[in-house]
Amino acid sequence: MTTTQGIVISAEQRKRARSVGITYLVLAAVCLLVFTRRAGDAGFKIGESSQFTLPAQGFGWALGIVLVAVAAGQLLRGYGKLSNVVLALATAAFFMSFLAWAAAGDSFSFVGMLQDTVSRSVPITLGAIGGILSERSGVINISIEGMLLAAACTSAIGASLTNLWIGTLVGVLTGVALAAVLAVMSIRYKVDQVIVGFAINFFALGVTSFVSFRVLVPNRDTMNNLLPVMPIRIPLLADIPFIGQILFDQTIFVYFSFVAVALATWGLYRTKWGLRTRAIGEYPRAAGTLGVDVNKLRYRNLLLAGAVAGVGGAWWPIGIVGRFDQNITNGRGFIALAAVIFGRWHPVGALCGALVFALSEAVRLKIGNFDTGIPSEFLIMAPYVVTIVVVAGFIGASRAPKAAGQVYEDQ
Amino acid sequence: MNDTLKSLRFTLLAVVAALFVSAFIIVITDIEALGNGDFGKALSTLGTAYWGLFKGSFGSLRAISNTITGATPLLLAGLAVSSAFKAGLFNIGATGQMLAGAITGLWVGFAFQLPPLLHVPLALVASAVGGAAFGAIPGILKARTGAHEVITTIMLNGIASFTVLWLLKTELFKREGRDDAISKFVEDSAKLPKLFWFMGKRIDLLAHTGFVVALLATFVFWWLLRKTTLGFEMQATGLNQEAARYAGMRTKSLMVVSMAIAGSFAGLAGGTEVMGLYGYASATVAGDIGFDAIAVALLGRSTPIGTLVSALLFGALQAGGRQMQVDTDVPIDLIIVLRALIVMFIAAPLLVKAMFRVKGEVKSFGQTFRGWGG
User: Fold this and answer.
1) Do residue A338 and residue B367 have CB atoms under 8 angstroms apart?
2) Any residues with CB less than 8 A from the CB of A152 and at least 6 apart, and which?
3) Nearest chain B CA: its distance from A211 CA (Å)
4) What does the domain layout of chain A look like in residue ranges?
5) In chain A, N or C terminus with fewer CB closer than 10 Å?
């Protein structure tokens, strides 16, 4: 144990502080060596007719030098309580410098990109909340992908045959049904949770591909054809410049995911249910001794998790695409699983993880139009690289709920 | 009844249950036949489908060859997942490691002119090293920064896929006269001999000696676990990392080494596909194998023999599934469902016991790995 500015820090924290410092140095190097290579002003559109410009080269030089200083400060002294603020400012500035470099001599819709980010984060966030609710109760949930995929398929069929509300409801029920399989198999029949989760993923992939090929393709017009929901402008809030368009001119799925994050956070940390849920995920024996019906609560939370993931699955056909395609989720459920770990099993953390991934995806789609001299393959892999850098450089170790994966037996 | 017989009975019952549920899915999705009230036709489709499944996997030498061809990469990639499980790590990154091994093996395969006796082993070693190097990355990241391997391996799969896509279009790898992502052919001296070479020139027998490599790798995995200190320490770390550390084991280096070993198995899977089956690499050379390998490892309980048997089963289902798709209008995707059900039912002896009303005590299996909750 050593002290810095009067704060006691452990060896683990010191190590993390050092890796954050090294990451700052890497960012500075990228700024100086790459972002200073393209000259010209980059236009960032932030509204219908308003935009601001950044000189790509000058900004790169300035930020690079500032980042070196920030890194020195981090490595030599640390920023104590301000370290998260410094981190947020540094990454935001780095991100702007990157965009200025990519769009040098051109302009693009900055606000559109952020709006796209928020929309794309929905299934990842909702899937991650499904993961958090089950893992916080002590059941590993690898099957988020399967729940999203199956719900996407059934909600497309439901919505094509009836209406969007019933379609979404069918998606929710599908998520609940798969969650029930996970619950019954892992709680009642004591099957290893990782195995059940993976089996559910394969089952969902197989059945939806099978149904898509055998039923949906021949009946395309009647069973797999719908009009997705339109964005809803929230009065007043949507008129706030910049922010309004990003957050309050979105589909109902986006609002639902915000509400879900808020409710899950409040529920887990401020209610009796949340205390019990966290208890059965960490130390079920103690909770059980104090009179909590561990397995009953696990059943309930898993079904709830399935319902939330079901809404996430319905986002594809009903929220954006208008139909179901084979393997439409394309691994987003695993990204959601990564977001759960990224956010350390906290809903807000998972939302941040989902936003980081969705942002890099939205950036890739916008930047793909510019000729930066970098092969498109490297732009496509940006979300993956960014996630690794953020996890390895800034987040570090995360610990799962202690009882996750273990069978609980009443005594 | 002794234990082996009992567990064999449960395995068979589990497969029967899985076939039964799949049959149900085939029949209820036969909308046209059921719509006409023609239940008999739906049933006969089912019969043809299952007969095709058997015929295509074991019905002829060609079918057996197809089964082996499918099982080869599944076994090697399955070992990559199993060995990581044994060390308490969840390796979702077999796809990326396969791609890395495919690329390094491919490069050695076309860049050198050597006699076959030297070229083949050298290319195999190159693919193992390529896979090991790529596999070590999540190990190093976890040991150094604590970054969870589930996140990093998923992301590294994406990175590997797009890097390979880019590499295949570079001058070094690009096939002359092609603009898409498809590589040069490896030299003939770097091609793995066919497994059934003694049958004369039968080009329909695709099975190659990559299967022998896979069997040797399975033996190496068994030997590592049973006969070496390293294997013992890996398993100790997998069971309880804290205890292993208190016992003086260097758990962080073990993490890196375990992931490198896992990566080398997956790298061989990529290399043998290139050198034995395709003769070149494309962006889809790894396909879904890295993902299916997780099911192989889970079904095989991460043991060497278990992984071998489940890889053969999955290879057979894949080969049979293709035949089924040809003979009926039942899509091959049914195989994915069937696999899922088999994995589920075999892992759930308590459920199978309840379904078939088997009497007597049944033990449920323990946890696959303890890396998640600790």
Assistant:
1) no
2) A171, A208, A313, A314, A315, A316, A317, A324, A328, A329
3) 7
4) 2-110, 121-395
5) C
Q: Average pLDDT, stretch B310-317?
A: 95
CA–CA separation, A205 vs B333, rounded Å? Answer: 8
* d(C-alpha B239, C-alpha A351), whole Å: 32
Number of H helices, E strands in chain A: 17, 7
Q: Rounded distance, CA B159 to CA A387, Å?
A: 11
Which chain B residue is nearest to residue A342, measuring alpha carbons?
B151
Q: In sequence order, what are the residues at sequence separation of 6 or more whose Cβ sits closer than 8 angstroms to the Cβ of residue A147?
A: A127, A130, A174, A175, A178, A179, A200, A204, A306, A309, A310, A312, A313, A333
- In this structure, are residues B317 and B296 in contact, taking their beta carbons and an 8 Å threshold? no
Question: Are A391 and B151 within 8 A, CB to CB?
Answer: yes
User: From the candidates A210, A325, A341, which should be mutated to test the interface with B, based on the most B CB atoms within 10 A?
Assistant: A210
Residue among A188, A214, A378 minimizing CB distance to B166: A378
Cβ(B347)–Cβ(A192) below 8 Å: yes
Query: Where are the domains positioned within chain B?
Result: 3-356
Specify whether the CB–CB gap between B292 and B71 falls below 8 A. Answer: no
- What does the pLDDT look like over A7-52, one tens digit per residue? 556 777 777 788 889 989 999 999 999 899 888 899 999 887 888 8
C-alpha closest to that of B328 among A215, A217, A214, A209:
A214
> A138 Cβ partners below 8 Å, 6+ apart?
A280, A281, A282, A284, A294, A298, A401, A403, A404, A405, A406, A408, B373
A41-45 and A107-109: which strand pairing?
parallel
Count CB atoms within 10 A of the CB of residue B121: 12
pTM of the predicted model, to two decimals? 0.91
Pick from A278, A242, A253: nearest CA to A135: A278
| Cα–Cα distance for residue pair A339/A330, rounded to 1 Å | 16
Residues of chain B contacting A189 with CB distance shorter than 8 Å: 348, 350-351, 354, 364
Choose the CATH number for A121-395 among 1.10.760, 1.10.3470, 1.20.1410, 1.10.10.
Answer: 1.10.3470
Tokens of A364: 């890739």
List, for residues A105-153, the tens digit of each pLDDT value: 888 899 999 999 999 999 999 999 999 999 999 999 999 999 999 999 9
**DSSP 8-state symbol, A7:** E
For domain B3-356, is the CATH number 1.10.3470?
yes
Nearest CA in chain B to A384: B155
pLDDT tops 90 at residue A349: yes
CA distance A391 to chain B (A): 6
In chain B, which residues have their Cβ closer than 8 Å to the Cβ of A401?
A: 373
Percent of chain B at pLDDT exceeding 70: 97
Can you tell me the ipTM of this complex?
A: 0.88
φ, ψ dihedrals at A213, nearest 5°: -75, -40
Tokens of A328: 């439409």
Distance from CA of B104 to the nearest CA of A (A): 19
pLDDT tens, residue by residue, B42-60: 888 889 999 999 999 999 9
